[in-house]
Write a structure and sequence with these properties.
The protein is of the alpha+beta class. 36% of the residues lie in helices and 23% in strands. The strands form six sheets. Strands 7, 8, 9, 10, 11 and 12 form a six-stranded mixed sheet that branches. A five-stranded antiparallel sheet has the order 6-5-19-20-21. The structure holds adenosine-5'-diphosphate and magnesium ion (MG). Adenosine-5'-diphosphate binds next to strand 5, strand 6 and strand 14. Magnesium ion binds next to loops.
Length: 485
């Protein structure tokens, strides 16, 4: 295997200069987040690495190559022809997790009873991978179907590292060659995905400017600029306006026509073409019944949902586990070569139920839990149980609850001694990285016809190798870029 060149070695004066330039570039170009308990005028530079992190070019290309197949699989899973298959799995999970999965399912069933009026469905997905250090094989960690983040800041960190390289902040002129530092164009490509939704909503008729995109956001969103970059691109490249509302603002600031089910943003009376969720993936987003009712009502509007409830539910970890079975996977992807490509990206994942694989899983953790992570059906970080904590955790559960978890083999990526900057603190610790590939797809969930299917850029997140989880906002992780070798 080819070896990457080492990180630049800098004098302390050079490192100080680099940090000065890094902070200014970040603040000047919106590579920023709000800190906890922020004031609206006080964003800070987002946590990033000082250097791009080595990543094998072939493995990167593998991850890009499988994205259209993943887009296809998940659009098929959440189309009506597979509704029964999906709902059977979700109903079973719901019996263990009544308060979240169960309520999302209720929303879907209620919406269906009222009537779902829009057959088109938009997916903005992100497939996350770690690299097996022994053979550089990409292994999928998770497939995200709702509220995927960092498409905005990812473009920015790639531009930042490229800028630092161009001003010789890495010590020598062109320490990295231009083609070694791929810059993710995810800001524009994800915005293109939203624009596709807007375009098809209008039956492919211009001008599109008559309708707007509605971002559903969380209160006090700290990662607001990641979303804003998308909005600015959507307006600049497509002349499509966007609005930002929390779920609890929907009843007062929107109006849905009871006949046509078209939804309007009241302050401007603009019709909404796409409802894009950057909220609604965690129980904390639903404070009262109001939010649950809003989620149901929005599903019945004419606007294209990104994602629909079915698509959101298809992203649960149980589905990821079930798909590792080739006979299941081939239900959703018809091409043998593509199926084999996808199978290579799967780590071993086991159910925790009473099936033979479930019994095997329990035996494996009894023998040695140190190679595994146990995952519940939750999104957004901080929910998994790692290694030696697994047996103790399981002993607190009722046996009947086991089935709502999956057990996954830990992927062991290479570690690198990059440096991380959080505000003004520099950490020199070994890190591991997780590559995300974005995809956008628009399909007709009634006919399963796929109208667009695109790869939409990438993301590298890194975390200290001593930490199991990697949440960027939570303080464990940072945004990174690729140095391809
Ligand atoms: P979430 O929905 O919380 O993002 P993930 O499945 O992505 O859940 O897990 C969170 C983090 O835990 C990942 O970003 C990764 O750092 C770590 N992790 C999860 N699964 C594995 C695995 N199989 N091998 C190594 N690390 C893992
Ligand atoms: Mg994740």
């Amino acid at each position: 295997m080819a070896l990457p060149k080492s990180f630049p070695s800098l004098t302390s004066k050079q490192q100080d200069d680099l940090i000065y330039n890094l902070q200014h570039w970040s603040l000047g170009n919106g590579l920023v987040m709000f800190p906890p308990n922020f004031k609206s005028y006080q964003p800070v530079n987002a946590p990033v690495t000082l250097f791009p992190t080595p990543f094998p070019r072939d493995s990167f290309n593998d991850a890009l190559a499988v994205q259209p197949s993943f887009n296809e699989i998940y659009s098929n899973i959440s189309s009506l022809e597979n509704e029964k298959w999906l709902l059977d799995i979700i109903s079973e999970l719901s019996s263990f997790d009544k308060d979240f999965t169960g309520r999302l399912l209720d929303c879907y069933l209620k919406a269906k009873k009222i009537g779902i009026t829009q057959p088109l469905s938009l997916g903005l997905f992100r497939s996350d991978y770690m690299l097996n250090s022994t053979d550089n094989q990409i292994k999928q960690i998770e497939f995200n179907t709702v509220s995927v983040s960092f498409c905005g800041l990812s473009s920015k960190v790639g531009q930042l590292h490229s800028y630092l390289n161009n001003i010789d902040a890495y010590g020598f002129s062109d320490y990295y060659l231009e083609n070694e530092l791929p810059i993710s164009d995810s800001i524009n490509e994800i915005a293109d995905g939203l624009a596709d939704g807007n375009y098809y909503y209008n039956k492919r008729e211009l001008p599109e400017a008559e309708t707007a995109v509605l971002f559903i956001i969380q209160e006090n969103e700290r990662n607001a600029f990641d979303q804003r970059h998308l909005e600015y691109s959507l307006l600049k490249n497509h002349r499509v306006k966007s609005y930002r509302l929390q779920m609890d603002q929907i009843p007062t600031l929107t109006k849905t026509d009871p006949e046509t089910k078209r939804i309007y943003y009241l302050p401007t009376n603009k019709e909404i073409s796409v409802i894009y969720y950057r909220a609604g993936y965690a129980p904390s987003d639903f404070k009262t019944d109001l939010e649950w009712n809003v989620r149901t009502d929005l599903e019945t509007t004419k606007a294209i949902k990104c994602p629909t409830l079915l698509t959101q539910l298809s992203g649960c970890k149980k589905i990821q586990q079930i798909l590792t079975d080739k006979s299941v996977l081939s239900k959703f992807l018809k091409n043998d070569a593509k199926i084999n490509q996808i199978l290579k990206t799967f780590a071993n994942i086991y159910p925790m139920d009473d099936s033979s694989n479930g019994l095997l899983a329990k035996k494996l953790i009894e023998e040695d839990a140190s190679n595994f992570v146990l995952k519940p059906q939750r999104e957004g970080g901080g929910n998994n149980i790692y290694k030696e904590d697994i047996p103790k955790f399981l002993s607190t559960l009722n046996k009947e609850e086991f089935g709502s978890y999956i057990l996954m083999e830990l992927v062991k990526p290479a570690t690198y001694n990059n440096k991380v900057i959080r505000q003004d603190e520099i950490y020199s610790e070994s890190i591991v990285s997780e590559l995300g590939v974005f995809g956008t797809t628009l399909w007709n969930s009634e006919t399963s016809e796929i109208l667009t299917n695109k790869v939409a850029g990438h993301l590298l997140r890194s975390k200290f190798s001593t930490s199991d989880e990697g949440g960027v906002a939570a303080g464990f992780g940072c945004i990174d870029s690729l140095y391809l070798y």
